[in-house]
Amino acid sequence: MYQFWFDSPKLTLGYWRRKAADVMKTNKWSLLRFEEGNEPPVNSYRPSRRYLRFLCSLMFFLCCMLVLFFLVRLQIPQETWIRPLYNSSDVQVLRESYPPHNYTLETPSITFMLTKCTAGFGSYINDAFSAFLFALDNNVAFHIQSREWCHVSWSTFFYDYSQDTHAPIVLDTYSPGAERWHEASGTPKDIQEPGFNGHVFVVHSGENFDDFYHQIATIKQPVYARKKVVAQALWEPKPVIMDVVNSIRKHYVEDSNRILISMHIHRKDKLRREIKKVETSVFVEKLQELSSTKYPNREIALFVLGDDDDALLELRSLLAHHHNIEVFGLSDAFTHLPRSTTSWSPLEQHQGYKPADFQVTSEKHQFQQTAELITDITLAATAEEFICCYSSNIARLVSLLRTQSQDTIHSLDWEAWTNE
Asked: Which residues cross the membrane (predicted)?
């Protein structure tokens, strides 16, 4: 039976091609008119030159279209092929209403100048978001400018306004020698009351910083809700960050149907100087409470971020008998990620962080530390629950980036933080 199927001349594609060609010669309007007995011998058919030319033309056309596709793909900014991390209606309205990015040096603006690594990433960014709100209320452009911006350059890890992206908001760094840098390098200009015109330069922790904070008090209410929108509009990490975040979520959550809970434990430089220590056991108690009340009989992936590996080890020890909870940090997660998704690796050790030490480390170390911190923050913001201390700038930054309800944030020191 199978032999007949393949050997029968009337059941082959070549047979029907020959029939069609024969019909076209005799009657081009009757393509379905076939007559028995006039078919050529089985092995005598050869494709016509016209048919070969058609095939060659078709292949050439398809190749041209393929080349054109890749050329266009290279010309289109990569970000337009990536779904924005935050795309709520409020965020979209802010992005669409922000002043156009084709500004000149005459465009009124507020420039936030970071001159020294005297504060951490979270502190700088939270202050920058407040400055941005102030600029929005005065309908002017906003810039960040720095000789050595703490944690490398914004545009290394984030899309910014200078690119044709879905987040057309500026958070640049201007290098020494740039025209705007020369204009800003003199004495910081006072913030005029009421409102201002022209350029205003605010030096972080500088001589007019207190005046700036006095003006921040005039930001329109509600500050916290509007600051969340600003934070989410600006926080648009590049694939160097998002590829890692998505791969971690896929491994720990999506492929295993576990609940992701994030926990930020701040130690070292903050303790005794700015905040009171909250014992690791208190974090564990809150986690156990969530596990038993909100997620009974569910497995939990606990993501821990912080500046001290000792806290992670202590946490693992306290949770050793809780078999439904897997504790992991960024270094643990990297061991499970495909190499194709990672172009960098986290630091091997974390024993505290001092902002002043950052600028004297190697370029590679600076990149790793910054990429790790941004990945920590972005991943923590996606978790179903977030356990933290609001006294930490990083915790407050994560809270601004979360789209979940406020009752999923559990601060163990301050009861609330609304920035108002």
From this structure: 51-72
Q: Which domains does the chain have, with CATH numbers?
A: 2-75 (no CATH), 89-234 (no CATH), 239-411 (3.40.50.11350)
State both tokens at 70: 């890749």
Compute the distance between CA of residue 142 and CA of residue 12 in angstroms, rounded to an integer: 71
Contact 226, 324 (CB under 8 A): no
Model pTM? Answer: 0.70
Q: Give every strand in the sheet of 259-265, ordered side by side.
A: 325-328, 300-306, 259-265, 385-388, 409-411
Tell me if 394 sits within 8 A of 226, measured CB to CB: no
Show Cβ contacts of residue 189 under 8 Å, excluding neighbours closer than 6 positions: 198, 199, 200, 201, 208
Distance in angstroms (rounded) separating the CA atoms of residues 157 and 342: 14
At residue 258, the 3 state secondary structure works out as coil
Q: Of 247, 241, 245, nearest to 339 (Cα)?
A: 247
Q: Which amino acid is at 381?
A: A
Backbone angles phi, psi at 32, to 5 degrees: -100, 10
pLDDT tens per residue, range 17-42 = 666 566 555 544 444 444 455 555 55
- CB–CB of 205/196 below 8 Å? no
Distance CA(118)–CA(148), nearest Å, equals 11
143: β partners = 111
Is the Cβ–Cβ distance between 199 and 108 less than 8 Å? yes
User: Residue 379 and residue 328: Cα distance in Å, rounded?
Assistant: 12
Asked if residue 44 lies in contact with residue 72, where contact means CB atoms within 8 angstroms, the answer is no
Partners of 301 in beta bridges: 260, 326
In sequence order, what are the residues at sequence separation of 6 or more whose Cβ sits closer than 8 angstroms to the Cβ of residue 136? 94, 98, 142, 230
| Rounded Cα–Cα distance for residues 258 and 194 (Å) | 53
pLDDT tier, 356 (very low <50, low <70, confident <90, very high otherwise): low
Respond yes or no on whether the N-terminal peptide bond of residue 222 is cis (omega within 30° of 0): yes
